Structure of Pyrethroid hydrolase:
Amino acid sequence: MNRHSTLAAILLSTGLLGAAAVQAAPSAAAADTAPSVVIVHGAFADGSDWTKVVGILQDKGVKVTAVQNPLDSLAGDVAAATRAIDNQPGKVVLVGHSWGGAVITQAGQDDKVASLVYVAAFAPDAGQSVETLSKDLPKAPGIDHIVADASGWLSLPPADVAKYFAQDVPAKQARVMAATQGPIKGAAFGDKLSVASWHQKPSWFVVSQNDRMINPEAQRIMARQIGAKVTELPTSHVPQQSRPADVAKVILDAVASVK
């Protein structure tokens, strides 16, 4: 019998091993039931757009999943978000950026979703699409710089990523963001939501004051409509890149509110 086996035998015979196991169980159970965060990126981006915030949340002990959206349709992105939600052990704080706001509004109907966090995002109502919602909102200048390929997939040229999408990040970082962006099928913006989970779920909203892709006043209008707790940041369309600690704080507030 080696030293480890002997120690185990002594602990077992004295009942200490059983006690230790019982004491460890609650903390393991607590970890399993703690809220997770699922992040849904927007158009012209992918999950790596959230790397900085993910790291901050993980350092705080929060389990995080960044969804990789196909960006082919509302239904396709909702399905990807729903798979991520289903894979979580307990309640979920669902975060959406830009187009991802429409996705979490629909996917948020899942019973596991406790709350919603919109980051410079669209927040449509049931029966609306991003396209119909946008017609009634102030327009942002970057919208005129989106280009379509022959198959109807939309993207932003690198110079316009730097000027309109992420004007407050270093030029080198903006070039990487342009190279890793996810083109979105243009028709997705016309897909209508069947539900709007913000009617039933508490919500938070990060308004980007210098946003050139979704007009800041449009963001304020949507935040008021959904009754969100609002944080305003002096950022471009990507506060998760330029002010990740501030965005993480909002998400952590939502996590802390989950009962």
The chain has one domain: 36-257. The longest strand covers residues 113-119. Residues 46 and 182 are 6 Å apart (CA to CA). The two ends are 48 Å apart (CA to CA).
